[in-house]
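Hey L., structure's done. Input below.
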Amino acid sequence: EGANAATTGYRANAATTGYRANAATTGYGANAATTGYRANAATTGEGANAATTGYRANAATTGEHAVAAALGIEGKAKAGISGAIVLCYRNDEGHLIHIRASKVGENGIKPDAWYSLDENGEFIETAE
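Output:
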């Protein structure tokens, strides 16, 4: 529970698993990955991707050409200018219903705004 990881530097990656086990990185290509209930991933740096798979686990990136992917139930994602997001909509049993991706600036996706998918597979802007 709460086993967090943080790194900084060129390709300095962080990965965690567990309840609220967050991962944060900064640096070129410094990726963060998490799995677990509310286990969030955040990155900053060019090409520094963030991915989560847990229930209500969020992914955020600020670097250029970085992708934020939230693949669990009720996940949210946000990315900066020239970034992209990937989101899933799953039912309460965890079955994959929809998956959708978009670059920032396309499909109404704004930089530094949180998004999730609704039951129809459409992007919806959400609160933090």
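The longest strand covers residues 96-103. The radius of gyration is 13 Å.

-- N.
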